Each structure stands twice: as C-alpha cells, then as structure tokens.
Amino acid sequence: MSTLRIARPAIALLTGAAVAAQVLTGVPAATADTAPVNVTVNTRAGLAAASDTAVGTNHAIWDSNLGTNETADLLKAAGVKMLRYPGGSYSDIYHWKTHTAPGGYVAPDTDFDTFISGAKRTGAQPIVIANYGTGTAQEAADWVEYANVTKKYGVKYWEIGNENYGNGHYGADWEADDHADKSPAEYARNLVQYSDAMKAVDPTIKIGAVLTTPANWPDGIVAAGDQATWNDTVLSIAASKIDFVILHWYPPYNDVADVLTKTAHIPDMIYLVRKQIAKHAGARAGDIGIAVTEINSGIAPNTQPGALFAADAYAGFMEQGVFTVDWWNVHNGAGTISTVAGHTDYGDFGMLSSGTCSGDTCEPPLNTPFAPYHALTMVSAFARPGDRFVRAATDEPLVVAHAARRPNGDLAVLLINRDPDGEHQVEIGYAGFTPAAAAPTVQTLTNGATSVSTGHAGTATTQTLPPYSLTTLVLHPASATTGAPAAPGQPTASGVTDKTATISWPAAAPGASPVAKYEIHRQNGAVTEQLGETPGTSFTVRNLVPGARYTVNVVARDTAGRVSWASAPLTFTTGTPDESSCAVRLTDTSDWGNGFVATVDVTNTGTAAVDGWTLHFTWPTGWQTVSSGWSANWTQNGTAVNVTSTPDNGKLAPGASTSIGFVGAYSGPNILPTAFTLNGTPCTAQ
Questions:
Q1: Which of 199, 225, 522, 545 has its CA at 20 to 30 Å from residue 649's CA atom?
Q2: How far apart are CA 323 and CA 318, in angstroms?
Q3: PANTHER family annotated for this entry (predicted)?
C-alpha cells in the first residue's frame, strides 16, 4: 500500500500489512483450452495516445547506485523516460539544500545534481517530490529556483508530498508530517501556498497533488472532523492551483493469480478520478493530468508474475491517458524469499538487483535485471510516444491483449498469457486494419528468461503463447494507405440528457480527396457500433440508455472511400429524465474502503397513487454487491438488483416518499448507480 521511511543503511521496502502478509510458494495450475483463444483488435476504437514520459521508475537517496553510469544505461536500454526523486516517504523528510533526511539514511553521491546527471544520461525527464511533511513552501520554491533558474535543468513536474494521507489522520501513520493539523483541508491549503511560491519562481512548472486511489485505502473514508473524503476535500480547495494529480497503486490481493486480475480495475479507477477532477475543476478539468508515481505488484515482484502485472498495468494506465507510470523501485533490497513458478523470488521491489542477501539466500550480482525490468523494456518497444492505443479484447480470462497503432500505419499487439502452466493458441481478428501476409516481428518474455527474445514467428492472425509469457507483435499493413484524411480532432459532448447527446469535433485535415462524411462509433469492448454519420462536424445521438457510460470515436471518410484513423476517445455518461413519476436519491452515508452504508429515498412524483412497487438498478461494475438491506426485500442476480416493497411501505400517495437502505460491498472502484426504474418507469435521480 505504501512505502515507509527506512532508518537503516540497508536498502529495503516496507509495505502495508496486505503486502507483508503474503508469501507465495506455488500457483495452482490452470488447464489450457484446446480451442484457440479469440483475440479482437479494433483500430476504429481509439484510446489515449502514449505520452513521452509514460514508462518511468523511482530513484531513492538511500540507494548508493542512484545515478551511476551502469544504472543509467540499463534504464535507458529499458526505455525509461521518467525518473522520480528523492524516493517515496523519504521525500517528506528530505532537505535538498543540505542533502539530509533526519531519521533516515542518505547514501553518498545521491544528491540532486547527481540525480539530474543520471536522468540526462538515461534520457528521462525528472519528476521531483517537494518536502511537504517537514519542509516549507519557501524551501520548495528555492529548489525550483536552483533547478530551473540557477542550473537551468528544466525540471517540469513537481509533486507536493508523497503519501500524506498516511500521516495518522486516518489511523495508519507512516508519512512524516509536522503540521499540527493533518487533515486533507490543511494539506490542500498548504498545497496552494506551495504552488503559488514555486510558480512565482518558474510559472512553467507543473504542480501535482496527492490523491487516494479509488478502492484503495483510505479512499472513500471520511475521517473524524472532516466534511468529505481526502480527494473531494483536496480538489475542492486546490483544483485551481494544480496541473496533475498523483496516485499510488499497490493493489490488495489474495495470491498471485488474484493480483494479476486487478488490472481490470484500471479503467474504472481512472474514470472515477476524472469524475472527481471534473466535479471541482470545471473548465480546467481537461488540463489536469493523472500520474501513477508508484506502482508494484506487491507479490512475486522479481519473477514472471511481477512482469505480467507490470506490462498489463502500464499498458492499461497508458490506454486511459495516464502520462507517467513509475515502478517502485530501481533498487530496493532482498525481502522474503520464496519460490514462484519454479524460480527464486527475492521479495525485492526493485527492478534491478541490489546484490543483497536475506538470511542465507543472496540475490544475483548488482544490477542484474529482474523480470519487471524486461516487461518495461517490452512496453517501451510496444507503445512508443505518440502511438495511439486501440481496443483489444479476448474471450479467455487468462489471456489479455493490448494494441497500439503507429503514425506510419503499423500496428503493435501485446499478448499476455497469465496461465502458469498452459500455453494458449490465439487467433487474432482485426477491424479497420488488414495485416501483411509476412510473419510479424515477435518479441517474447517467457518464465525464467533473462532477456527478451526477438524474431519472426507465427502469422499476424495466429500465435502460440507460452505459459506465463509476454508476446508482442509488430504488424505492417497489407498495403500502404496513402492520401487518407487525418484523424478528426478531440470530440466533445454537449446537451447530454437521459437519452441524447450532441457530439462535436474539429474537422479532419483532408488527404488526397475531400472529406465526404464522419462516422461516430461507440465502443463496446473491442467491438464498435456505428451510432450515425454526417457530412458536418456535429451529430446528435439519440435513443441512449439513461445513466449509462458511453465511449465514442469519430472517423473521417473521404470521397474516394479512404478512412482515417479513429479520433481520440470521448467518454460521457447520460443522465436521468428531468421529469418522471418517480424520483430516487441514493446516498453513501458511511464508507470504510471496501464497503458502505447507503440510504435510498424513493418518492412518488406522479399524480397517481402507487400500491406496491419494485425498484430496479444495475451495478456499474462486476465487483459490487448488496450484502444486506432493510425496509424492503433485496435480491441481486449478477449485477442487477431488484428491491420490492413491504406491506408497511408499499403504498405511496402522490408526493409521498419512503426510505430504505442497504450495506454494499466492493472489491474494486465503487461507481455508484445513477439510473433507477420504479415499476418499470425510469426515475429522476436526485
């Protein structure tokens, strides 16, 4: 869950109880199907473009190899483009002018200038954490002046603090914080001061605010004395002063197989964060980026599961437009030793060996790459800066797919086999792309491999995935498409109601022929459905479902039939009817991070009395359930929830209301339902 300050020279990482309590000694075998796995790649379903800082990692001042040429060259070879400094929770005790961290260990030759030198050699941008816990806004402003005015390093990204919600305000206390008031409101007020002071020195820098990650502690919790959660409080005060928000993700898990499934949470996680930003930032919301500046599997971090998790998570976050994902850590040190899938796992959260020992077991020599290092190498080659991700999906939970199109017309596909024992044959189908017949270039990382292998194997439509493997294909188009129009600009939505939305977009630049029309495509997994077409640059979509989330793309087609690549995606959620014979208000009254108490007020807003009612809603995700309920009869089938009245509250006269409630549980991002029907009639959500 979080990195802790270390009060000894040895490099190590302490994590939350959920991480520390888990030791894997084996993974249950899964039987591979004899039928091929169907993979669908749809270039009409565009996602985010890969940023030039997407693949990153963390450096720490207690690492004596920070900034060494050997380390920098290894990171450069892996395609690392962002380096974070000075290291997790140490950031809130570190004073850059004296290069000291009272209560912690600072290794020789790890000062800021050494870090910058290593970052330059790596070819990575720095992201620096200003000391919030024991520092001041002036100290941070002086750092900006030294970095960007005196030394002209051009450090663009600055975080204000590390995991400041871990200061004891919610119970757990690992993050240094000398402020008497440790509330999110106090953090936000000081964040504003830091931003003002730092931007007075260099107005071009980007300031980042610490947020909690949806469905990960302490997200959703309102502490004593607060009026709202950490995220709502911080954003309500400081949204106008920040340029990005910061998430850390060490997913809770039961075992290795479980942690590999948690990447399915990423789209909803980022969706919720964007909703929170939009709620408080208004017109600025689109200018506020999202950074995941710490991430690790937390289990089997040195062996193949760590690599599978890393590749899947990096690709998943990049698809959602996260501008950097930073592995914890470059070096970290041996922890609990275990055997994972036939190989020794050192419990080391670093991507490179520290050459340390745990008991009688010693790691391989210093800077030996662990499996996640190779995964980042593959991700860097798979999705390069400027490539646009497109939808890819499979019909087998043990096989995951990602895809990205390149400006030159090529297409890259990343295939992840999470089955520890069985290989899987895959058959790949493409929409909007016809691959060349030649065998594609294939990169593979297999269980226990010490490097990524590259060659030509299989075909563009058939591949064999070894057990526990990463495979990337780079495909050329069957024929070069010249003269096609450029992709339309970023779509926006306006006039969104319960059933309609107007989609508008900047016109596509024509190619060899004029643009004839635009097509609007809705994403449904890796399948798209065309919602309409128009010769103009705006289209009103009708017959939408109330309270539903839609992601759409626009493509241009010219008079010669050439089709552009898909635009960037637009996601919007429909509302509920402005007028109805019923109204429903769902309120989360108490949340504890994986469950909550909700009250549901049902009102008859019609002109006729109701004698017996059935309320219906659908959970937005598959990891939300009704644990128990009261004042009604509650049942759940799949994600569908039906609630029927009791003899005491079944009769509702016009204008009358009844209040019912339930205990909900969730194991992923908790997106509350917004669409309800009463006796089949869509209700207004209040």
A1: 545
A2: 7
A3: ALPHA-L-ARABINOFURANOSIDASE C (PTHR43576:SF3), ALPHA-L-ARABINOFURANOSIDASE C-RELATED (PTHR43576)
